[in-house]
Specification:
Number of strands: 4
Low-confidence stretches: none
Strand order of the largest sheet: 1-2-4-3
CATH architecture: Orthogonal Bundle
Bound molecules: zinc ion
Number of domains: 1
Order of helices and strands: EEEEHHH
Number of helices: 3
Mean pLDDT: 91
CATH topology: Arc Repressor Mutant, subunit A
Strand content: 15-25%
Distance between the termini: 27 Å
Radius of gyration: 13 Å
Length: about 100
């Protein structure tokens, strides 16, 4: 885990709720991947070897997968470009927010 944190940013949660499902966030080395979302287990895995910026971008990307799967948007969920672009927008919102 990176030791320096931008305190303006929200901490990556250990868990969050999505339409009544609890999503757990865990850190584990994954070969060749920054992150992964397991819809069966409701577990998001983030690679702790990632730098903070990438970790946060990955969190929002995987959060998008969790939202889309929970909402039943299977086709959109498999569109990695869409998932990544909306994830980037959410990350930018978090990063540039004032107040
Ligand atoms: Zn993805």
């Amino acid at each position: 885990m990176p030791t320096t944190r931008n305190t303006k940013l929200l901490a990556i949660p250990k868990t969050y709720e999505c339409l009544g499902f609890t999503i757990k966030v865990q850190y584990k080395e994954i070969d060749g991947l920054c992150g992964h979302f397991d819809p069966q287990e409701g577990v998001m895995t983030l690679n702790p070897a990632s730098k903070e910026e990438l970790l946060r971008q990955t969190f929002w990307h995987e959060a998008m997968h969790s939202f889309l799967i929970t909402l039943g948007y299977e086709e959109l969920n498999s569109n990695e470009q869409f998932v990544d672009q909306i994830g980037q927008c959410l990350y930018q919102l978090e990063k540039t927010r004032k107040g």
